[in-house]
Amino acid sequence: MDIATIVDEWIDPADLVKFQRTYEDQSRRGNPSAVAVFNYAHALIKSTKEDVKTGIFLLEGLLKRSEEDIPKRDYVYYLAIAHTRLKEYDRALDYINLLLSVETHNRQAAELKALIEKRMKRDGIVGLAVLGLGGVGAVVAGFVAAAFLSRRTAH
What we know:
Shape: globular
Helix content: over 70%
CATH class: Mainly Alpha
Number of strands: 0
CATH architecture: Alpha Horseshoe
Number of helices: 9
Order of helices and strands: HHHHHHHHH
């Protein structure tokens, strides 16, 4: 499946409801598992603009959790996809560049970066990315980079 298809994919509403129920059931009993949060966030970013924003909020929350059920690179990758869907290309680039700084040979990330840059040019927003470089990257880069690097040095 090509990267544009992944970015533009829409979820079946029944699937979204299924992931929402799992997330809400676990939330009622306490903290939902990272897997339940990720699955729900992943479903949300394939839905409406407001749902994508909620998915971003959930994924950013997962970045702060210390659980390792799902690699943090997955959160970063899907945050880049979500921001691309919202046409927030500067933030999408911040996330994908962060991922590529740790995983320089990640083909999926490189393809997503190329798509983001193509859409930026198409939408005429290239200059905004330069202005936004200090945004998300500065806030999240330290935390995520430390997590990636600590994992790499542990192996």
